[in-house]
Amino acid sequence: MPDTVITPAIPTVPVTPAVLEALRGIVGERGLILDEPGKEPYVRDWRGSLIGTAAVVVRPANTDEVSKVVRLCHEHGIAIVPQGGNTGLMGGATPWPTHSGILLSLTRMNHVLEVDPVGYSMTVEAGCILQTLQETAASHDRFFPLSLGAQGSCVIGGNLSTNAGGVQVLRYGNARNLVLGLEVVLPNGDVWDGLRSLKKDNTGYDLKHLFMGAEGTLGIITKAVLKLWPAPKDVATAWLAIRDPQAAIEILSEAHAASEDNVGSCELMSRACTDMVLRHIPGTQDPLKADTPWFLMLEWSSSRPRQDGAEGMAEKMEQFLADQMEAGRVLDAVIAQNEAQARNMWFIRESVAPASRAEGPGLSYDVSVAISKVPAFIAQGITAATDILPSIRPYPLGHIGDGNIHFSFMGPVGMDRETLRQYTPAITRAVNDLVRDMAGSISAEHGIGIEKIDELAHYRSKVELDTMRAIKRALDPKNIMNPGKILRL
Amino acid sequence: MTDFIDRLRAIVGERGLVTDEPGKLPYLSDWRENYLGAALAIVRPASTEEVAAVVRLCLEHGVAVVPQGGNTGMMGGGTPHRDGREIVLSLNRMNRILEVDPIGYTMTVEAGVVLKTIQDTAAQHDRLFPLSLGAEGSCTIGGNLSTNAGGVQVLKFGNARQLVLGIEVVTPQGKVWNGLRALKKDNTGYDLRDLYLGAEGTLGIITRAVLKLWPKPKDVATSWIAVPSPEAAVALLSSANAASEDNVTSCELMGRQGIDFVLRHVPGATDPLAERHDWYVLLEWSSTRPRRSGANDTGLSEKMEAYLGEALEQGLVLDAAPAQNEAQARAFWAMRENHSEAQKKEGPSIKHDISVSVSKLPAFIEDGLAAMKRVLPDCRPVPFGHVGDGNLHFNCQSPPGWDKPRFMAYAEPISHAVYDIVVGYGGSISAEHGIGQVKVDELAHYRSQVELDTMRTIKRALDPRNLMNPGKVVRV
Fold it and tell me: Do A205 and B197 touch (CB under 8 A)?
């Protein structure tokens, strides 16, 4: 648990033998895990930093079973922690140590129910693994764009409940933009069938968007209709040494037109990031031996296959980069000549997190500001942190097109975790104060869960918190649905 | 009540208050003049603080508030009830553009800015604000957002809710929620923004917004295409995505009946194609990359022509007229946009703004047309709409020569026949226009108890005294 967090008030109703029997009656022996070693992977988060408890792990096989389980818990006032692939970073799916209720895992509900390539949609159960969905779409010559580090183990229900981000947000939007309809089991066990595959539907309040990003505190997403896109057929990926973060924003601004609105990704990395990756991750190669402090990874993609004689994405990008070099924004650049080179570039980008773990203890903030404020934020944020701890080593990176910065620091060389921890609260306060002053977000992608519950309360207005609480109390009056996450009531 | 009016005056000043009957009238009736309401006063605050003070005063006096933008809605959502115990709160004095950030692709505006002004301001900065619809010269952005407006660019850019980064809202308690964040990513609790968008002013009053901007299109290709069937239109759109490099901006389907009405009633309209066909598609591609001179650089119109040539061979297209210049493209668009006016001139009609999933569109059209004919064999269906959104204006014109009362006797059976089929296909009975007061009962009829209860629960939680646009969207 974060040092400062005090456990919120959550229901303490136990799972009695009678309730357990009733649960067994609903989900069967296969759907229950009672032994401690069996429960362990569910009650701790994947980083191993949060450990909670649950009387029982319940794994329903379908919506009807979820509904019956929730109805039973509602009747008795038993708390429920819904869980997908358990890859969250904020502890949203990890029970509190004081949790006396159940953990409800969606992982058995992993069927793709329908693929409609003509209508560009796919209907799936909440427990489908993200990568399976990407592959299913690809096998129909379609594209499901959600893409993030944990895609081999995270599941779509969790992605939607946390409104996941990733590396394709610039073009396709966050998880909530990739969804047409949802089915949700409400805190009283009722099933809301909002499984509509409609692009337009102005019929009352947008419940769909309310459940997405609510981290399972308002209900359990059991099914979804996802949007699909045409599969990309012509992709150009480049690694750029650039003047500074301001240049990155200007490059992106002009890239829209030059690519015919086909900018897929635009990832900013500081030299400290790439150095760390090259130092710790075997098999990585510096795409560009340039002695510059900032790099940009740029990817354009089109669903139109390259045609003989016609200009493809790579040719367009080459022309564009030449123009940008002339303008002094790009210092040096290389366009991937084949898929292996493109994969190497992506591998470097995705290896920053593992490399930072190998490097030693550090701090990381998942923040966002308006895109035009990104350069000022990086500069002022680094100053704010080094004012507190001068030898701390910043390695900022991020999805610059989304204004989303993973504002990260390695501890000073040789400093152990315990010593670094003494500086953490002051640096966190300084960084988040700056985020607030720049009208940004203290959690761009990762959500609130357990970890940021007090930060959110500190930085959001009373009006906003009260409105959220009013909604939570109205939809979940017994506070049984993932209690003590996002908000204290 | 004079005390109440005096206190309103103290908040908004003489200029912000309309109490005389002739002055109030334009605010009391919707633009189609289907509904006429009454109000204690029309209140026109000049700032967010004034809006909040007015709402707090109304709360104190138990007076309901009907928020209103440009008053161009189709469902009576901005029109007060007849009992005259509400006030209309018009946002039309809050019409300033507060900031344009071309590099960050955002614009911050007050709720009362006219949509056209926003489009023009974006264009001056070489940017595009894509929301585009018939009423753009008089509707205001606050109303567009409160109703989650659609229009002709939804296919590429999404509905109004997709064009917004942040909003400021005055809550039913008269507090100001500052959600005016210019952020593309913000996962910090419940998505309040999307709850207020589309709520038709029943949960609070949108007072400001941060809008997203896009690069301005520099190369546009438009064609008028005859297709053998709605099925062919869907297939055409599906393959157009790749052919255009994902640059399809509009794909509008029209049946022959609507074209005949336009040719009959709209001066200057001419059939772009020599022969009569049953179904037409207006296809537009646009790119922000300017056309370059040089032989090896093909612009969008060359790409579209090559694509239509292939589609002709495959039988997806029967005939096509690519627009040779802007005037011709405008003429094609006029054919589409004059459907409503032509229908009005032809005589009485019933309108249905429905959506189904795109792949079910052809089957829906077939069943829907048959259903209308079953109720009234001589009626003349006028289906047209946004294929890419699965959204059709599935309208029905009276038999030739019928007057309104005679035809309206069939309105309910025809609508129910259509809506039953819509619901059977998992569709929506209001794709773009919302619920307002017109469709409150239809919504209650077609939506599940669970869904209605959930909406009511939210309404009661956020507006416990039911003073914010009461009786619209959902009955509490």
Answer: no
